[in-house]
């Protein structure tokens, strides 16, 4: 009994050691689509808190799955992932996903399926992957991605610009003196006085003398006088009206005076004769 029990224990221990020493099998990467590809361009997007988390600002999460196939199961031992980081469509970055280590990637068992996840800067392109597994699962796939969010544009900080201080000029503005020219004096115009009309002097008409009887003396013949027209002479002070003094006018005046004297003498003579007749 003791030998049999020891033999059984020895057999179990040998089996466990044999299983532990079994090398991991390689597993091919099955991807439907074209490579390289960005996380944002992959059709299946999910963000799981226990499988990489997200979404993150400026970072992408890639999740690889090892599903069962025709009863064959397996678990990830490691996953090697290659990326194009500069956009030239060639692999320039290789990352190995291990179990644990807390280095931005990990291998977990979730819902009965082995999954491996990694966080990369946003915009990297997946160019290929390979895995080592325990079990007989023939292939693994890219299960889903959690694309990073675009950082919001920086909010511009308002800048206060102090308005320029305008210094008032120290030079006094020129003073405009009022004009000293006196306004022109308007002199009223004096019009010349209008000439005052004067009445014409009365014309001297000859006085008819009564017929006298002269005894022994000739009776003077009355002379006809003619009115002399007035002549107006202009002067600086107005219009002056006077009788013209001519030779013919003076002769007429002399004759008129002689006639008057003769008439008076005749009348005096007759008066004396009548007085003498009454006395005798």
From TrEMBL:
Residues 210-226 have a biased composition (Low complexity). Residues 243-280 form the Gram-positive cocci surface proteins LPxTG domain. The keyword Transmembrane helix applies. Keywords: Cell wall, Membrane, Peptidoglycan-anchor, Secreted, Signal, Transmembrane, Transmembrane helix. Residues 165-186, 194-209 have a biased composition (Pro residues). Residues 144-228 are annotated as: Disordered. InterPro entries: LPXTG_anchor (IPR019931). Residues 1-26 form the signal peptide. The chain crosses the membrane at residues 250-271. This is Gram-positive cocci surface proteins LPxTG domain-containing protein. It comes from Pilimelia anulata. The lineage of its organism: Bacteria, Bacillati, Actinomycetota, Actinomycetes, Micromonosporales.
